Amino acid sequence: MKLHPLPQQTLVCGRHTLDLSQPQVMGILNVTPDSFSDGGQFNQLDAALRKAESMLNDGATILDIGGESTRPNATAVSLSEELDRVIPLVDAVSRRFGVVISIDTSTPEVFAAAAQVGATIWNDVRALTRPKALEVAAKLDLPVVLMHMRGEPATMNDLAVYDDVIGEVKNELQQRVEAALTAGIRRENIILDMGFGFAKNTAQSLILINELWQLNDLGFPLLMGISRKRVLGEILGGAAIDERLYAGLSAALLGVQQGVSIIRTHDVRATVEMLKVFNQLPANE
Ligand code: 9MG
Predict the structure, then answer these.
(1) 225 lines ligand 1 (CB under 6 A)
(2) pTM for the predicted model, two decimal places
(3) Do 230 and 196 meet the contact criterion of CB atoms below 8 Å apart?
(4) If pLDDT is split at 50, 70 and 90, which confidence band does 284 have?
(5) How many angstroms is it from 225 CA to the middle of ligand 1?
(6) pLDDT, tens digit (0-9, with 9 covering 90-100), for 190-223
(7) Ligand 1 lined by 255 (C-beta under 6 Å)
(8) Among the four residues 26, 128, 185, 186, which has the most C-beta atoms within 10 Å?
(9) Where are the alpha helices (DSSP H) in the chain?
(10) Does ligand 1 have an atom closer than 6 angstroms to the CB of 70?
(11) How far apart are CA 197 and CA 164, in angstroms?
(12) Closest Cα to atom 2, ligand 1: which residue?
C-alpha cells in the first residue's frame, strides 16, 4: 500500500545512484567517544569498520557517519576533533566498501573534507544554517538532507510549541528549501526530514507520524529517523533504549506507507526485513 507518488525515482550521489523506487536503509555509525570505547585509535577504527561491514551485510545502502552528538546535553566538539573522528573512518569505509556515505555534521569544513575522501551525502540536522554551509553545499553539488529543528539541541525542547505541528514543520522546511535553492543547490539534491526528537514532544511526534504524508506536497524525497528515540520510550511507558525496536519498526512502516524514501536506523537488519514485507505488497513491487 504505497499511497503517494515519488518526487524522483533515483538519487545521484556522486559516482553512486540510489534507487528510491523502494525505501532505502541508512545505517547509523556514530564515532563519538562513547561509541567504540574499547581502546586506542586503531581499535576504534577497526570496531567501526566491523560495524559498517555488519550493517552492509544486513542490507544498509547508506552509512551515516557522525562525530558530533546532537543530544540536548552533549558537549560541543571542536572542528579538529570532529575531523579526527570522522575523516579516517570515511576514508577507510569508502576504500574498503565503496558504499554511499552520508555525514552527520553541521560544519561545512567537516563535510567538505569528508567529500574529498568519498562521502556523497550531507546529513545536516541544522539544515545548512551554519555560516558558509549553503555555499559549500552548492559548490560540492551533492545531495543534502535538510532536517527540521528549532534552535539548537540545547534549546530545542523549549521551542516545541506549535498550533499546527505538521503545517509549521512543512512551512519551516519550505523556508530551508528556498534558502537552498537561492544559494544554488539543485532541486534534485534536496532530501527533507521532519526531525523526530528535535523540538517535538511526544504528542507532537504522534501527530507527525500520522500526518507526515502532507510533507510530500513539498516535492522532495523524505528521510525519517526515529529508531530508538526517546519518543518511542515514552509511547511505551518508559521503555529503555534497547526495548524500543518494535515501536521503531512500527513507526518506520507508517512512514514508508506515507511516502518516506530513506529510513535512518540503528537496527538495520530488522528494518530491512520489515521493508521486505512492505516491498512485496503487490502495489509496491
Ligand atoms: C543525526 N541525526 C540524529 N537524528 C536524526 C534524524 O532524525 N534525522 C537525520 N537526518 N539525522 C539525524
Answers:
(1) yes
(2) 0.96
(3) no
(4) confident
(5) 5
(6) 999 999 999 999 999 999 999 999 999 999 999 9
(7) no
(8) 26
(9) 41-58, 79-97, 108-116, 133-140, 165-182, 202-211, 230-235, 245-257, 268-279
(10) yes
(11) 17
(12) 125
